[in-house]
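Protein Record: Sequence and Backbone Structure Tokens
======================================================
Tokens: labelled as protein backbone structure tokens, with as many entries as the chain has residues.
Task: work out the structure tokens from the sequence, keeping to the layout shown below.
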Amino acid sequence: MFRDQDAGNPFSDPSVQNVSTIQIQPHVDNFNPFSDDFNPKELQVAVIATNQDVVRQATEDLNRQLDVLNSAAENIEYRDQNLQPQHVIQADRIKNYPPLPPCCPIKPCFYQDIAGEIPVDFRLVVRLHYIFWAVYSFVLFVNIAGCLGFFLFAKDQLMAGISFAISIVHFLVRMPCSYVCWFRPLYNAFRSGSSLNFFAYFVISGFQIVVLAIDSIGIVYYGTVGWMHGFNAFAAKRTGLGAFFIVIAILFDLLAIFGFLLLTKVNLLYRRSDASFERARSELNQNIASNQYVRQTTSAAARDAARLATEQAFNGSQC
């Protein structure tokens, strides 16, 4: 008479009931060992399942951290290859400076590649110093023309002739010496972080700034035309020549000012680096100790001293 109540119940199916009767092992955090249903085997299974979850989570975290480290290592390698200077032995590279034609009997003496050897943060400073050196050389050449004009129109031909000859010496000596004595130390200091090269740059560049200030004065027999020559030319009614002398004096003064600004900039970069006087002294001692000529000279002096001491001891024993 009564309709079967389970006819419309989807959970009355035997297969569903079998699945619903399967008990999921409780997590160890929710397991109560004081309950009446306590079973040590169930506790062991729960602990094993929890340990597996912890190990799996730790493995996933470790793999994630390894991926991050590998990505960072690839970025560092890319930066070192593309942005940082490639430190190689200078002798293994073909020297390319100064750029001379192949037919010239004099070959390049240095390897220079600002974009390839200097770090990105210092390339602008090095390029500015190179431009400063090029303008400095140009002003020395213009000074020759000024001394030639002074020689052609001066009353004292002997004095003017000596000044003109000395101006040529200034150009031929100071142009390469300035490159070797302060630009190359600066280049090497930023290329390799050498404290010794920093100190060489500071000393020689500071001296050059003082020399540029003296150049602008126009001292007699000094080999440069400056303010004194310009004023004397104006007094002699030679306006064009006097203006030319004044322009050269202004160029020397501008070089001194610009050189001082560059020196200040390099000093700020030096203070931010790990360079120091102690490192410079240590580098100097290492260079002296590793110099082959110094080692040979020291060895020869030691042998001579030992031989002299032996001869003196032998002569003393005979007496």
